[in-house]
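ingest -> validate -> predict -> emit
validate: passed (alphabet ok, no gaps, 77 aa)
predict: started
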Amino acid sequence: MTTLSLKKSIQQVVDSIEDKNFLQAVLTIVSDKRKELDYKLTPKQLSILDDREKNHLTGKSKSYKLSELKKALSARG
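emit:
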């Protein structure tokens, strides 16, 4: 089932529920999840990321291909 079809199914089920307490609980859960997705970086964190990007683009830092990373991680496990 795709994410879109799951969303549509959830909407259909929620539309048929009349239990106010249950709906409030569902709202609390989805609101908390949305807050997780709305995470904002601090100016200092943004500055660190900008510095890392600059180092990467100028070749001052080492970078790896995804296949190299997967190989290294599987060797550790």
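Residues 14 and 22 are 10 Å apart (CA to CA).
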